[in-house]
Each structure stands twice: as C-alpha cells, then as structure tokens.
Design goal:
The structure holds 2 protein chains of 2 kinds.
Chain A: H1 2-32, H2 39-58, H3 64-91, H4 99-120, E1 126-127, H5 147-169, H6 171-181, H7 183-188, H8 193-219, E2 221-222, H9 226-241, H10 246-266, H11 272-286
Antiparallel strand pairs in A: 1-2
Helix pairs in contact in A: 1-5, 1-8, 1-9, 1-10, 2-3, 2-4, 2-8, 2-9, 3-8, 5-6, 5-8, 6-8, 9-10, 9-11, 10-11
Chain B: H1 2-26, E1 27-30, E2 35-38, H2 40-73, H3 81-87, H4 89-109, H5 112-137, H6 145-163, H7 167-189, H8 194-214, H9 216-219, E3 225-226, H10 240-267, H11 269-279, H12 281-286, H13 291-317, E4 319-320, H14 327-340, H15 345-361, H16 369-383
Antiparallel strand pairs in B: 1-2, 3-4
Helix pairs in contact in B: 1-2, 5-10, 5-13, 5-14, 5-15, 6-7, 6-8, 6-13, 7-13, 10-11, 10-13, 11-13, 14-15, 14-16
The chains are: A mainly alpha, B mainly alpha.
Chain lengths: ~300, ~400
C-alpha cells in the first residue's frame, strides 16, 4: 500500500509539472492554433537561468530560500522575454502563412535554442542544488512525500487559480477568449490581437519557467536537452485533456503523470518514454478531441 | 530623419538582445568547482551582431511585403530567372550530360574518402526525395521519418546476421517493411489534423529507437550489430576500396530510379491528389478524393524509400546501432526538403548536397551545424517558404485568341 501511495504521489508531482508546461501549449494553441514546438526550450532556458542566478548568488552567501525565490523570479522574467521574442521572430511573420510553415519554423526555433544553450553553456548534465527547505510538519510522511513535492503541488494549485481568475475575470482574459474564438472578429471589436498573442506567449512562458525551476530542484540536474522530452510529454498531456482547454491540460497532466508513474513502477522503467507516446497514439485513435475538449468537425 | 529612427530602432533591438542573452552567453558556471566565469566579450559580440542583423531583418521583411504586393499585381511574371534557366531545354540537356559524366568518373578522379562522402550525400538525396513525397507533396509533416530508415537498416542487419541474406535480397524486403510500418503508423494517425501528426510521428520515431536500445535479445541493444556484409557483385569478392566504389554506383543507380519514379508519381493522378489535399482538404473530399487512402499512400511510399535508404546505409557502414537513428536525423532530412524546396525534385537534390557536403568541407563550422539548421528552417520559412528552387505546379495555359 505504501508503494502504491508513493507511486500515486510521485505521479501527482510529475503530473503537476507536465500540467504547468501543458498550460502554455494549450493557451498558445487556443489563440493561434499552432503547436509551439519551442515551448519546451523556454522551460529549459528558465531552468538554466535559475541555475545561473543561483550559482552567482550562492557565492555571495545569501540565504538559500531568498536565493531560490530570486532565481525563480529572474527565470520567469527571462522566460517571458524569450517567449515574447520567439513569437516576434519566428511566428509573427508567418501569421497568414500555411500552418506547415509555422510548424517548421517552430521546430527550427526549438533546434536553435537547444544548440544555443549547448554552445554557450555546456553539453554535460549540471547539478541543480535543491534549495527548498525541509518542512517539519510533513516529517511523519517523509517516507512517501518530500517537501519538494509539497512545494510543487502547492505552486501548481496557486498558478492554476491565478490563471483561471486571469482568464475568467480580467479584461485581457476576456480579450484572449475572444481572440481564440475568432481572431478577425475580435480585431474588429477593437481588440489589439498582436498584444493578446504576445501576452499569451508571455503567460505560457511564465508557467513553463515555474515548472522548469521546480522540476530542476526535484530531479537535481539539468542539461540543454531536458526541454525536448518534457515538452513532448506536456504536449501529450495537453492533447489528452483536450487541446485549447485549461482544466483539460491540468487533468491531462495528472493522468499522464499517473500512467507513467504506475507503468514504470509496476512494469518496467526502461520504457518510460514509450508509455507516454503509446498513450498519445491511443488517445488520438479513440478520442482525438481529448477528455475535456470540444470536437470541431469541418464537414464536406 | 528616417535614417536616425532606423538606427535608434536597431539600437533598441541590440539592447534587448544583450539583455536577453546576458545570463546564458555571458555567465558560464561550473557548479562542481563552484566557479563563475564572466565572458563580457560575448556581450559585445551579441550587441554588434544583432544591431546589424536587425537592419537586414527589417530590410528583408519590407522587401517580402513589397514582393507579395507586387505578386498580386502581376502574377504572370512571378517566374524567376532561375526557374527559366532550369526550364530551358538546352540547358537541361547540357547539364544532364555533364552531370552524368561527372557522376560516372567521380570515384576515379577523387580519393576514396570523397567517394564515401558522396555516397552518404546520395543516400540523403534518396531520403530527401522520399520525405518530399510526404512533406512536400502531401503536406504531412512527418518527424519520425528516421524510424523507417531504422527499420530498413535493422532489417538488413538482422536478416544478414541470422540468415545470411545478401544486400540484393534484402533491398526489396527493406522497402516493403518500410511501407508496412508506414501503413501501420499511418492508419491510426492520418485521420488527424496535420499538427498532431507531427507529434505522433515524432513519438513513433522515439519509440522505435528506444525499443532498439532496450530490447537486447532482438537488436543487441546500444552496442548495435557489426560486420554486416557489403553488397555482392556476381559472387566476386571485392576489396574494401572497390566495394566503396561499387556502393557509390549502386547509390547513383538507386537515386536515378528514385528520381524517375518520383517524377512520374508527381504528375500522376495520385500525385495531383496529394497536392490538392495539401491545399484544401475539404474541397478535395468534395471532389471525390478519398482522404485517408491518399494520405496513406503518400505515407507508405515515403516510408518505402526510407526503408531502402536504411538497407543501403547498413550495407555501406557495415555497422548499425540505435545512435544513428535519433530525431536529429529526421530533422536533417526535413531541413534538406525545406531548404531545397518542398515539392521540387531538383530542389531536394540541391538541398541534400548543400546540407550534407557543406559541413564536411567547412569543418570549422561543424560545431554550429545544428544551430545553423535551426536558423535555416526559420529563415527559409519566413523569407522563402518555397525553398531555393521552389516546385512549380503544372498549370494549363490558354493560348488561343482572346475572347
């Protein structure tokens, strides 16, 4: 039973991270119907920036909790800046081009960002210090859940709530919803579509950066390649939940997290990534619109 | 005054990029020794580089917008000089003869090493042409193309290892297996929209690689299979040197066959159906084209060439392991198709030679190879979506009297 609970909570933590990254995919997809392939790279850059800030600040001997908070903040800022620039360079000139062009451009950007970090930094795995302190109150449960997991779960919940409020009740949220329904109509109603799209990229990048910092503290090491697999898995989560739907992305993240956790725990850990992909293929065959997605059919 | 505004704009761009690249370009950390290295030189480089590049970028964007306006005005004069050059019959005949002569004597005038590289480039020509069917003609973004390549390579390696089958026997088997896997994968996913397809094929490519890496009893794991026999020539034992030359000629032959078939396919009923499907699915179905079947044929045919390419690859290197079949291989092949020109046979051939041969001869830049590929993909899509030599669709021209 303890083993089951451990796997369950492990899956939940893992799922939260996927959910945080999947939110960015799903938001961008909802607005411009493009799979932002470079989203995983934004997450990786967030983690790298955090590591760099941590290394610089730690040499000054600052309090670890302050260090991780500052690093997280800087990582979010930088990821947002990267997301913003990415959209301006690689996607905006292709707004009216065929979808295939935008998709290829996105892959190019992903390749570029990976190699940029590889060349500017290193190709080795770098250790990422875990600066999240151990909480005393969870001491009795320490054998099944660590304090890092608790922080991850709480952060995900908070981010989710903030996002929901932002999209439901604010003016920019309303503009986002309008743009995702019909871009042309929205612009006719006086919504600056370019601003909305930029804002969506910034928002998505911010959640990805939070996810990046959290998982880097959880796993304890990063390299330039982490964004790629995480990005794909988050995409699987987004599709699973129904792409374009925010609660769907979170649900999809959890389901994927549990699937991986139980499959590796009870079957085999060699094929960890295979499960995610197989899962994706199965969903796409049986329920292409995802768990919470609406199916849109174009009829002949 | 306008010039001043331009300079100010570029200055802002440069400052923005200095800010953007600051942590990653300037600071390099070494967490093991807990040292931090500051590289201020890079900051200056980024600033100066982006300052000038932003001028170029804006100039190209404005030119592109102008170009699209002009294209609307006079559509007939869109055909570029390059295209007219290619279309000129005399030039075609001349260059074909010259190319054939060059290809025929190539192994005798250059070193063995060069021949080897050329064979590799030819394999990529074949792969590029195969992927061109899927991406260029049918408009399906296939990121797991390398999986079929792996299937072909392992088919030959395993059949040769266990049953001693030779190259010529396995070549059709590899092609058939490629097609079979193409259909197996294509069947469930081709009903989906394009962007899902990209991810699923990518996943499929990774699944195949992971299986090859982990299923030791079947594929001998990460260490791979070595001592695969080279292609036989009527029972004559060839030295390594001669075998390389022989391999080169086999590749020339296979490439010619591929070019011929792809050209024929392009103009056939199914080829036109692919292009139509790429342009508008709904209209296409209304015209009575079976969407799934048409896509599936494109997918299976593309995979066939990957399967054959795999067999040739295994025979050429006499060694296969899963590390040769990563996602990057798929992206390199995609780069070939995109750079050369989607849907254009001559474009893809040019693209393959550029992408494979340039890094071989410009060793200095080999570090930046993948970085350049990324830039190529983005820049090509933004400024020249048709590639270097874009494919032109056959159109019917009315040449009678004007009404």
């Amino acid at each position: 039973m303890d083993y089951f609970l451990e796997l369950f909570l492990g899956g939940l933590t893992r799922g939260s991270i996927y959910a945080l990254i999947a939110l960015g995919y799903t938001m961008v997809y909802g607005i411009i119907q493009l799979i932002n392939f470079a989203h995983g790279e934004i997450y990786m850059i967030g983690a790298f920036t955090a590591l760099i800030v941590i290394s610089v600040l730690m040499s000054t001997g600052m309090n670890p909790v302050a260090v991780i908070l500052i690093a997280g903040f800087v990582a979010v800022i930088y990821s947002c800046a990267y997301g913003f620039t990415l959209e301006k360079i690689a996607y905006k000139p292709l707004r009216n081009a065929p979808r295939l062009s935008a998709l290829i451009s996105a892959i190019g950007m992903s390749l570029f960002l990976q190699n940029y970090v590889l060349l500017a930094q290193t190709c080795d795995f770098l250790p990422f210090p875990n600066l999240i302190p151990d909480f005393e109150c969870i001491e009795p449960f320490a054998h099944i859940i660590g304090s890092t997991d608790v922080v991850i779960l709480v952060t995900t919940a908070v981010v989710m709530i903030i996002l929901t409020i932002l999209i439901r009740y604010t003016k920019i949220g309303k503009a986002m919803r309008a743009t995702s329904q019909d871009r042309v109509m929205a612009s006719l109603m006086g919504i600056d579509v370019n601003t909305v799209i930029s804002f969506t990229f910034i928002l998505g990048s911010a959640t990805a950066a939070i996810g990046g910092v959290l998982i880097a503290s959880h796993i304890g090491m990063i390299n330039f390649y982490i964004g790629f697999i995480a990005g794909i898995k988050a995409f699987v989560a987004a599709v699973l939940g129904g792409i374009g739907s925010l609660p769907g992305a979170v649900l999809g993240g959890f389901v994927l997290g549990w699937t991986e956790s139980f499959a590796t725990g009870y079957i085999s850990s060699d094929y960890e990534d295979v499960f995610a992909f197989l899962f994706l293929v199965l969903i796409l065959i049986f329920k292409p619109s995802g768990i919470l997605g609406r199916s849109e059919q174009s009829k002949v | 005054m306008r010039k001043f505004a331009e300079i100010r704009k570029s200055l802002y761009v440069a400052l923005w990029f200095i800010f953007l690249t600051f942590p990653i370009m300037v600071i390099r950390i070494n967490p093991l020794e807990k040292t931090v290295e500051w590289r201020w030189m890079n900051m200056a480089l980024v600033g100066i580089g982006t300052f000038f590049l932003s001028f170029l970028w804006r100039y190209l964007i404005s030119k592109k917008e102008e170009g699209s306006k002009r294209a609307e005005e006079k559509q007939n004069e869109k055909i570029s000089k390059l295209r007219r050059l290619i279309e000129n019959r005399k030039i075609i005949a001349g260059s074909v003869v010259a190319g054939a002569l060059l290809a025929a004597v190539f192994p005798f005038v250059v070193s063995l090493y060069q021949t080897n590289i050329m064979t590799t480039a030819l394999i990529y020509v074949m792969l590029g042409l195969g992927l061109n069917i899927v991406v260029g003609l049918a408009g399906l973004l296939d990121l797991g193309y390398v999986a079929f390549y792996a299937v072909g390579a392992y088919a030959y390696a395993l059949l040769n290892y266990h049953f001693g089958l030779n190259f010529w026997m396995v070549l059709p088997v590899g092609a058939a297996l490629g097609a079979l896997f193409g259909i197996l994968l294509g069947f469930p996913v081709l009903r989906l929209r394009g962007d899902y397809l990209a991810i699923v094929t990518l996943g499929f490519g990774e699944i195949i690689r992971l299986i090859l890496e982990n299923w030791n009893e079947f594929s001998f794991g990460p260490s791979g299979i070595s001592n695969i026999s080279r292609p036989p020539l009527f029972g004559i034992e060839l030295s390594v040197q001669n075998a390389t030359v022989y391999m080169y000629y086999i590749m020339i032959f296979l490439c010619l066959v591929t070019i011929f078939i792809v050209k024929r396919l392009q103009d056939s009923r199914i080829g036109r159906a692919w292009v139509a499907l790429r342009e508008d699915e709904v209209a296409c179905q209304a015209m009575g084209i079976d969407r799934t079947k048409t896509k599936l044929t494109a997918f299976a045919l593309g995979a066939t060439w990957a399967g054959m390419g795999g067999v040739v690859f295994a025979a050429k290197t006499t060694f296969v392991n899963p590390a040769s079949f990563t996602i990057w291989e798929s992206i390199i092949i995609l780069c070939i198709v995109v750079l050369g020109g989607m849907g254009s046979v001559i474009g893809v051939i040019t693209g393959a030679f550029i992408i494979i041969l340039l890094p071989e001869y410009l060793r200095v830049f080999s570090e930046f190879r993948m970085l350049m590929f990324g830039i190529i993909l983005v820049v090509m899509m933004v400024f020249r979506p048709g590639g270097i030599i874009s494919g032109v669709r056959r159109t019917y021209k009315f040449e009678g009297k004007n009404f």
